[in-house]
Design a protein that fits this description.
The structure is a single chain. The chain is α/β, with parallel strands linked by helices and 290 residues long. The protein folds into 2 domains: 30 residues; 203 residues, Vaccinia Virus protein VP39 (Rossmann fold). Helices cover 39% and strands 24% of the residues. The protein has 11 helices and 9 strands. Strands 3-2-1-4-5-9-8 form a 7-stranded mixed β-sheet, sandwiched between helices. The termini are far apart. The structure holds S-adenosylmethionine. S-adenosylmethionine binds next to helix 5 and strand 2.
Length: 290
């Protein structure tokens, strides 16, 4: 995978050099575009850059199966609090977590699925007086969560193999689903449903495939999902899976949830080397009668 990623990067740089547009690409991934709607920002990307990017995505057709050697684990182990400095100021996330918490009982037990450093999500849950349990694949992130949220409990486990001994009133998965495949995301939707008590609530923070630049050949045939999108994150390229906004809704409804609330928001990370993120929030409820 590393070899093909390096090859793809070299090829991409060579193509950009030929087009004399390396500077412009840097600008397009810069946080300084944050004051424009994303559609306007992406529309400014020259076509040659779009095709160079799609090419790098197309030749990068292999990904490791999800496990403890998942590529992002290395990034999160390395970056630790640097990640929080770049992403921890997300006002849209904080507002949606507060709205979600208000819909839960005061003594609710909430799972933070891919908890990262523990801030802001686990920390907000604990600060509200509710009980929080966080899981994460990265041992560095689990250590940071334990330090930063002393009232929570945390464990290092892959969400795909997690088997809770008790049910939750709420589950949050914030920005932690990007590197799962379509099949794994579908599995997770059913697992969250199983892990919740009747009337339990789910909050996910994801990105809609319809809100990012793609090319037609990248799409699954049903038009609901794009896999292996090259995404710039903490100065690296990671390959991510995105459903469309409607696709996320139907994935959750297919697992048995009813959609309670959806919202979009553009988030600008506070670091160089990160793509601007068009966030999509969904709050969904497990019916009381199951
Ligand atoms: C982008 S960070 C988001 C952290 C936090 N949820 C937030 O909103 O700030 C993604 C986190 O999800 C974790 N993660 C990714 N895939 C995972 C998996 N399959 N199981 C558990 N954690 C995972 C990563 O290790 C990382 O800490």
């Amino acid at each position: 995978m590393l070899k093909s990623a390096v090859f793809a990067s070299i090829l991409r740089l060579a193509m950009l050099k030929d087009a004399g547009q390396r500077e412009q690409m840097h600008e397009n991934s810069s946080p300084s575009y944050g004051s424009f709607p994303l559609s306007k920002r992406t529309n400014t990307i020259p076509n040659s850059i779009i095709s160079a990017r799609s090419f790098s995505v197309l030749i990068h057709t292999k990904r490791p199966t999800m496990g403890d050697s998942h590529p992002s684990t290395e990034i999160f182990n390395q970056k630790g609090l640097e990640y929080e400095e770049a992403f921890g100021h997300d006002a849209g996330l904080q507002k949606n977590v507060q709205n979600f918490l208000e819909l839960l009982p005061a003594n609710a037990r909430v799972l933070d699925c891919g908890c990262g450093t523990g801030k802001p999500v686990s920390h907000s849950i604990a600060a509200s007086g509710r009980r929080v349990h966080g899981i994460d694949l990265s041992p560095t992130m689990v250590d940071l969560s334990r330090k930063q949220v002393p009232h929570g409990t945390f464990e290092k486990v892959n969400m795909l193999s997690y088997a809770p001994s008790d049910k939750f009133d709420g589950v949050v998965a914030s920005l932690s689903l990007f590197e799962l495949t379509r099949e794994e995301l579908t599995t997770m939707a059913h697992k969250w449903f199983q892990w919740l008590r009747p009337n339990g609530l789910l909050l996910i923070l994801v990105i809609g495939a319809d809100d990012v630049k793609t090319s037609p050949e990248m799409w699954d045939s049903d038009g609901q999902c794009v896999q292996r999108i090259g995404w710039t994150f903490m100065s690296r390229t990671v390959y991510i899976t995105l459903f469309t906004k409607a696709g996320w809704n139907s994935l959750l409804e297919g697992a048995g949830f009813s959609i309670v609330h959806t919202e979009t928001d553009t988030f600008v990370p506070a670091a160089e080397g990160c793509d601007v993120e068009p966030h999509y929030f969904v709050i969904a409820r497990k019916p009381s009668s199951t």
